[in-house]
């Protein structure tokens, strides 16, 4: 069978079952009339996830296996719940199905967290702040409309209150994870859209079910809610059956989240929601929990400030970093060199400079194209970074030139350091394509100056002359310039 067909056929089956569920409103079917299609999809969904794993063989299946385990618990919980409801007609919470439902939600949340961390491994702080803002806002709403009425119901036992409160809390967790997943978390594949649809529809159906329960229940709402659950589970099964699931949790190429319009809109709505609730409750003449809402507003304000500070820091790092290689850029280096020279003038310690030029780089570009040249630059930058002495500043100075300023170093120590740097470049081949390795060498010029005599222009001139000498002597070698001295005064 073609790999694109299973998920489409599955969605057709899901649509038919959802339609049969809704027909109960028209045909007046008994309880099992809409529960049989619902249970069929519930029990089939974990099988679809396992089928997707077997067909597409994802490289890291842990998240999918956790998702399948959560759906198995969900199917067992649904079966127990419907059997008890059909045979006894009523139940006292907590029931075995409640334990299974809640455990299922925790497993599904764990699976989504696994996907998120693998897709965007470096986003934890920024997205954590965003998630906290949304979580605080949504928690206040959930407390006000769902948890508070249950907590204040004197007819419920404590175990029943805890069970009833656990459902909106865990649903809220899934909603926050869905929001975290959608905001620029790597590529927007079909599997991602299907998983988001599942999470959002499941949250909507659970919320509708809770609202109907608080309002006293409605026979007409059961088939519609069940149909919504069917569609949400159908989207989950299709997510696993789609070929895109194979690379679903591949790391994102985006280094860090930006302040996109969607992200800013989400944060704005979250921040305004709590004061809006406070104002609405006041205008409606109901009691307002001022300490709770005020504390929530204050915490969200501080989190937004922290987020803004993080964005400013990220922009500053971007302005100081070479986009291709990830090392510092020339502008940052010139400031760092001037700072080190001023500090050396005060303290008297030596300042060293190493200038690295990749040999025959134009030939690499002409032979393998700019993509091959870029790979060489990135690899060399990574090697130089790994061998840079603590306290030194490495930067890309020009097209194929790198430069490093090293504080507290003498000429005797600078020469072997420069030679080790040359060997870092030349000793191992560099991959210019997935199948081609080439040897790359570098010519290095080094210079040092005593603190009182350290001048950026003089150091750069001396290192550049030493680099020129290394090139003229045949390349792939290190030349140390004579120590920079103050020019002798002109005799009158």
TrEMBL record:
GO terms for molecular function: diguanylate cyclase activity. Keywords: Membrane, Transmembrane, Transmembrane helix. Residues 349-483 form the GGDEF domain. One of its GO terms (biological process) is cell adhesion involved in single-species biofilm formation. Pfam families: GGDEF. The chain crosses the membrane at residues 38-55, 62-80, 100-116, 128-146, 166-183, 195-217, 292-314. SMART domains: GGDEF. One of its GO terms (cellular component) is plasma membrane. InterPro entries: Diguanylate_Cyclase, GGDEF_dom, Nucleotide_cyclase, Rev_trsase/Diguanyl_cyclase. This is GGDEF domain-containing protein. It comes from Actinoplanes cyaneus.
